[in-house]
Every structure is written in C-alpha cells, then in structure tokens.
C-alpha cells in the first residue's frame, strides 16, 4: 500500500525545500518537490534529489562500530553505551566536564539536531566551538549595525528596480532566489552581479562587475563617497534613524574613485555609475553572499555595504534592504539548549576555525574526549594537517554519521545517524526561507538503528542524567515551538500540513525600530568599540602571503554538494580553475595535472583554464575528501575581524606542473 508524507530537506541551505515522499512497503519509491509550497513550488535541487540514493546507499553505516586493532568492528548499542558512559564518568571525575569537546555542527537542520549539545549541558558542560566556519563575520556586522540580521520575504525582490547580487551565487546555492531574480529581470528590473568569479549567476545576467578578492569594503566606501558628494544621501532618514553618519562620511571620503579603482580593479567610471544607479533607484535591494566575509576584513566589509543602504534610506521599505540572513521564526522558538545551560558547571570556548590549535594547546584540563555530530570537521576546518594530527592524538573520539567520512575514519566509536526520512522533526532556517517545515517520518530506520536523539536520551538514562527538561522527542518538539504556537494562536497539529510563516515580517525593519541600544541603525557602534574594533565601518586593506606564496586561494561551494556530503563517494581528483593569464605565467596547460602547494601541504589537481577567474587566483571547490585532495589542507586558521569567522579566502598557494 502506498502513502505520501511531507518531509523537509534537512540540509543547511538557504531555501529549506519541502518534499512529497511516496512510500510503499516501508521503502521510498519517489521523492518530488511539494508543488504547493509558496516558496519552492515543487522545484528542488540535485542535492535534495540525491537524498534517497544516500538513504539506500550500500556504504551507509547501519550499526555502531568500535575500533579494535586499528580496524572497525560491529558492536551493539549496549556495548557502546557501557563504554561511553564509563569513559565520560571517569573524565568528569578526574578532569571535569570541560575535558570533553562537544562539536555539534549544522549538517542537520532539525530542532532535534541540538540534542548532543543539550545532553552535554546537563552532563555539566563541555568545551565547544564559537564563531563560525560559515557566516559569523557578517552576522556580527549586522548585529552591530541593526541589532539583528533580518531579510525581506523572497518575493519582495519583485518590487525592486535594481538588485545587487554581491558575492552570491544563487543559481547554484539558492535556486529559488535565482528564479525570482529572473522574474524580476523580465519585469524590467536590473540585476548586477559583483564577484571575483564569473559564477553561473554572473553569467546569467547582462551586468557583471569583477572585483579583486577582499576589496568589497573599498568598493562600498567609494560608492558611499560618490553618493554623499552628489548629495544623494537621504538626510531625513539619516536624521531620524541613523547614528554615526559623520564618522562614516569621514571614512568614506578617503576613498576617491581613483583610489578605489587601484584597490578593487574596477574602473572608476564603473564605480561611479554603480553608485549613482543604486542611489537613484527608489527600490534597490542588496543580496550579500557569505564568501565576501571569509576574509580577515569580512565583518567590516558587510558593515560598509550595510551603510550604503542606511545612508540612502533603503531600509524598511519594499524592494530594498541588505539581505544577508533572515531570522524570522527562530526568535519565537523555545531554545531548549539555552534553558539547559543552568546545569553547566564548567565550559570553555574556542574559535571554530582553530580546532587543531585548541586540541593541541588546551590545558587545565586537556581534552580527553571528542564527540562530533552533524559535522565533518576533519574535512571542513582550515589548516587540516594540524587539525587532523591533533584530533588523532585525543584518547577517545565518538562520531555520529551516515557514512565513513574523513572525521569518522579517525574515530574510536562511530554511531550511525538516522536520516530525515526516519524520524519526525521540525525545521527552520535563518538564511533565506521564512517558512517552517514540519517533517514527518516516512519510513522506519533499518533494523536496530537508533536515531541520535533517542541515543542521547538512552545514554542520559544510563548515566542518571534526569534534568533534560522533556520526556521524549514529541514532548521536546512541542515544548520547542510552544511560544510560537501561543504567539500566533495555532495548534501543534496544524504545523504538519501548513506552510507556516510570519506574514508581518515581509519587509525587514518596516517599523524602523532597530534592535540596537539606540533603536537606530548604528554606523557608529559603541558595542563594537567596547569589543575592541572600529566603531564605524572601515576598509583595512588586503593581505599578502607570509610564506612567499603568490596566488590567492578561493575555496567556494559547488552546486553539486552541501559542503563535503556530496564528495563522500567521489574517487576523482579536484579541479583547479585558473585564469588564462595565470596559466600562461606558470606554464600550465588546460586539463594538465598540477601540484598546488600551501604553506604546510600540497595536493594534486587537474587544471581547467577559464576566463571566469580573476588573475593571480586559484579556485578549487571545497568538500573533496582527504584521499582525493581536501583543499583545507591548504587553508590557514586566520580569523576575521569580528564574529570569529574562519578567513578561508585569505589563504595563499603556489602552483607547478606535475606528472
């Protein structure tokens, strides 16, 4: 007998697609997009379509594994419960809870994904990452400027006459925004893409501006200077809703068109035209990608771009805004993890981009155990040589995953993770989609496979931890959404079949009451000053390699994979993209094999010569496995100016021909 159920895409993505899954005899026989969903309208990407293939892949881990004599052998859940409970109790007694590192990532976006962190709070605490491998600098920037990060509803872009896609590639990483952009273009809107790389998105529109990497802040300041000198700034809006305009104007005045051209590589006339077009269009929107804040100056870059919208009054109005993230639903959820923090007796934090350094240098106490879930840090963290070496020295390592990832291969115990199809859960995203997805269980897990949520409930019971704050997974979900249900007067059962969103948030900051101390946009932030950084947006220049490595390394996402997930079965070698001039300079031929050398490591790759990449730059997609050539062996552990963001794109390399 066939049945259909609604399931959410679980990936850490902008769009939060919803699937209609057809099940027959406890097996998924079809997965398609939900045609009735207001945003995704039945269109799903190749990453979502591949989930069923992954669910039934023969290499999926289906039972706990324990390392014995450097090989993994199958074990029962009772065995691993006994080992883990005894080890955790011993470590807590001898070194305290902070001797355990709890690494909980965003690879699974459901509310249940927080269970590991919640468990360790009730355990007494742990050592944990702070900052971000993804978007931290930009989030911190918008918190200084606006007090929070909010985005317009997806369809609001149809109200825009001019749209700047700044360092963002929605054709590959946000297909529903891309669809709206093409609709807007057909209705007469002008779409301009600003990017060091002529991405598929840039190639899809007439206006593409190539910019030198790490110089976006200089472009924004020069544009602001043009706008201010031309008298096109919104004096009334600034007077009522902006704090710190004079300090910002002084900084912007330092960036003449000629200076900006020398920094950004963009002709002065193009910068001037861009500034005048943006200021002159009543409804102009900016969509920022996460790549432009993955530099040492990334937070200030976003603050400079925010300021463009602030001084022209393009905040709180239809078709406007600076769209970076979209925290719509999350403020109305009951953060169960936060509530459990009352049980913490010891906790340490380390920068997410410096995992290897922390594992090496942590004292009083040293790290004795690591638990990893919803993450693959030995693929995604920068400076992988140091990170992998340090990780391998830890005496007890437990990893939850579907497959034998780079991180799982280093573990002492591997626990199989359930797929989204095998459990009920609730999903939201703070990236783009304003909708909540209730994801229904479609099929039972394979025999004896225990979902991670149930695993930690059982482990807590085994260890006598009784203060989790809920009875079971259903109780957990109901308590998590209780404030949302109360606020908007809806029943829990209604979430399962509805497309819930918060309609009043269609235009970000429409009430012009900001969440800063002053309730204004703060181009001068006292909080930033207190935090030891410039109170107003600045451009701090670009970095050069300290190791005489001549080429900047960009490690962007591919549309084929969410980070490393799509590469787990790939046997090929990475492709390195080079500009034609760069290839000629180093005597590199198209389709040849090369050695790409970083400060500590090297990898082999196949060359693709293209005019889509700027000069003196090497482009390699991130996500490749160790055995293929993980690009993060070449990246360094530099951190951004704010938000603890890993500054991946301030890494450098050399390249030479290889056999």
CATH class value of the largest domain: Alpha Beta
Point out poorly predicted stretches: none
CATH topology of the largest domain: Dimethylsulfoxide Reductase, domain 2
Q: How much β-strand is present in the residues?
A: 15-25%
Counted by DSSP, the helix tally is 22
Q: How can the largest sheet be summarized?
A: 6 strands, mixed
Structural class: alpha/beta
- Integer tally of domains: 4
Structure description:
This protein starts with a strand and ends with a strand. A hairpin with a 2-residue loop joins β2 and β3. It has 22 helices and 26 strands. The strands form seven sheets. Strands 5-4-17-16-15-6 form a six-stranded mixed β-sheet, covered by helices on one side. α4 packs parallel to α19, α9 (216-229) packs parallel to α14 (298-311) and α16 (355-361) runs parallel beside α18 (384-393). Helices cover 30% and strands 18% of the residues. It is globular and about 70 Å long. The protein is α/β, with parallel strands linked by helices and 659 residues long. It has four domains: 2-55, Phosphorylase Kinase, domain 1, CATH 3.30.200; 65-130 and 344-427 and 437-494, Rossmann fold (3-Layer(aba) Sandwich); 136-327 and 507-530, 3-Layer(aba) Sandwich (Dimethylsulfoxide Reductase, domain 2); 551-637, Barwin-like endoglucanases (Beta Barrel), CATH 2.40.40.20.
């Amino acid at each position: 007998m066939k049945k259909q159920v609604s399931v959410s895409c679980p990936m850490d993505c902008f769009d939060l697609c919803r699937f209609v899954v057809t099940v027959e005899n406890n097996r998924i026989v079809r997965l398609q997009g939900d045609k009735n969903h207001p945003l995704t309208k039945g269109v799903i990407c190749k990453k979502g379509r591949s989930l069923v293939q992954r669910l039934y892949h023969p290499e999926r881990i289906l039972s706990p594994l324990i390392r014995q004599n450097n090989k993994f052998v199958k074990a029962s859940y009772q065995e691993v419960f006994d080992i883990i409970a005894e080890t955790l109790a011993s470590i807590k007694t001898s070194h305290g809870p902070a001797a355990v590192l709890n690494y909980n990532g965003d690879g699974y976006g459901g509310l249940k994904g927080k269970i590991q962190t919640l468990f360790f709070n009730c355990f007494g605490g742990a050592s944990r990452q702070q900052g971000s491998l993804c978007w931290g600098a930009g989030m911190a920037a918008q918190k200084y400027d606006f007090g929070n990060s909010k985005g317009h509803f997806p369809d609001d872009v149809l109200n825009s006459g001019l749209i700047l896609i700044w360092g963002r590639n929605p054709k590959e990483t946000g297909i529903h925004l891309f669809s709206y952009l093409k609709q807007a273009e057909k209705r007469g809107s002008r779409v301009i893409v600003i990017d060091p790389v002529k991405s598929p998105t840039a190639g899809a529109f007439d206006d593409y501006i190539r910019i030198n990497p790490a110089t976006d802040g200089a472009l924004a300041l020069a544009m602001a200077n043009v706008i201010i000198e031309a008298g096109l700034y919104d004096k009334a809006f600034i007077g009522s809703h902006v704090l710190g305009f004079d300090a910002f104007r002084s900084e912007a005045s330092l960036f003449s068109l000629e200076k900006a051209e020398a920094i950004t590589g963009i002709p002065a006339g193009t910068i001037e035209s861009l500034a005048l077009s943006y200021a002159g269009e009543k409804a102009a929107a900016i969509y920022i990608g996460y790549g432009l804040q993955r530099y040492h100056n990334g937070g200030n870059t976003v603050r400079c771009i925010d300021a463009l919208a602030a001084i022209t009054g393009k905040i709180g109005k239809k078709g406007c805004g600076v769209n970076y993230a979209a925290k719509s639903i999350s403020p109305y959820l009951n953060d169960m993890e936060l509530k459990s923090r009352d049980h913490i007796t010891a906790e340490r934090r380390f920068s997410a981009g410096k995992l290897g350094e922390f594992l090496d240098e942590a004292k009083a106490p040293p790290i004795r155990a690591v638990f990893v879930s919803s993450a693959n840090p030995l693929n995604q963290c920068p400076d992988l040589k140091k990170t992998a070496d340090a990780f391998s020295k830890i005496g007890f390592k437990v990893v939850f995953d579907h497959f034998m990832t780079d991180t799982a291969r280093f573990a002492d115990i591997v626990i199989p993770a359930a797929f989204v199809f095998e459990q009920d859960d609730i999903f939201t995203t703070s990236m783009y989609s304003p909708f909540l997805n209730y994801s229904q269980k479609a099929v039972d897990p394979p025999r004896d496979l225990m979902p991670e949520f149930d695993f930690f409930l059982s482990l807590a019971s085994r260890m006598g931890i009784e203060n989790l704050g809920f009875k079971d997974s259903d109780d957990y979900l109901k308590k998590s959404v209780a404030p949302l249900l109360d606020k908007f007067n809806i029943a829990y059962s209604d979430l399962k079949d509805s497309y819930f969103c918060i309609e009043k948030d269609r235009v970000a900051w429409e009430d012009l009451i900001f969440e800063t101390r002053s309730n204004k946009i703060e181009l001068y932030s006292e909080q930033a000053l207190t935090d030891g950084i410039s109170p107003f947006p600045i451009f701090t220049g670009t970095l050069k390699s300290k190791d005489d490595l001549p080429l900047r390394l960009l490690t962007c996402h591919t549309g084929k994979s969410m980070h490393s997930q799509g590469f787990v079965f790939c046997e090929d070698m990475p492709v390195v993209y080079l500009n034609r001039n760069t290839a000629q300079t180093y005597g590199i031929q198209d389709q040849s094999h090369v050695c790409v050398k970083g400060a500590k490591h090297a990898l082999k790759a196949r060359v693709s010569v293209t005019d889509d990449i700027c000069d003196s730059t090497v482009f390699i997609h991130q996500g490749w496995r160790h055995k293929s050539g993980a690009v993060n062996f070449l990246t360094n552990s530099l951190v951004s100016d704010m938000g603890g963001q890993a500054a991946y794109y301030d890494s450098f390399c050399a390249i030479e021909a290889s056999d």
